[in-house]
Amino acid sequence: MSKLDASKIAINEEKKSVVITLPKAELLALNMPPDKSVLAYENVATFRSNFSAKDKNHLLQLGEQSIRDEVPNLGILNDAEKNASSFFKSLLSQLGFELVTVKFE
Questions:
Q1: 18 DSSP β-pair partners
Q2: How many helices and strands in the chain, by DSSP H and E?
Q3: Helix or strand or coil: residue 84?
Q4: Of 20, 23, 33, 90, which has the most beta carbons under 10 Å away?
Q5: What is the C-alpha to C-alpha distance for residues 22 and 84, in angstroms, rounded to an integer?
Q6: Hey, is 7 helix, strand or coil?
């Protein structure tokens, strides 16, 4: 909501219509706490030592980056935009607008 720009809201009082243009959905935060991570399998060969805390943190960072890279393919942002559109249509309809258009840029 902090990126909502008032100049992107067009109201036509005669037609009781409003067009609101919202910013595209984006991932704001991704938090994978290291204390919540679980090592599911670790098979250490003779010439390899156990993973250090530094190794585990690096793997966690790689996992977070992998998730960030896949976000556009997961449909999460599309769902967020659908939910935002539904929210604004409902809210603005309750305020008396008969035609509500929600766009994303």
A1: 11, 100
A2: 2, 3
A3: helix
A4: 20
A5: 9
A6: helix
Structure tokens at 77: 């942002």
What does the block give as tokens for 90? 């409902």
Contacts of 10 (CB under 8 A, 6+ apart): 18, 19, 20
Q: Let me know: does 9 contact 92? Beta carbons within 8 Å.
A: no
- Which strands sit side by side in the sheet containing 17-22, from one edge to the other? 9-12, 17-22, 99-104
Place of tokens 């919202």: 22
Q: Which residue has the tokens 């250490």?
A: 44
Q: Whole-model pTM?
A: 0.70
Q: Which two tokens stand for residue 52?
A: 């250090």
Place of tokens 């938090």: 31
Predicted confidence (pLDDT) per residue in 43-68, tens digit? 666 556 677 778 878 888 888 889 88
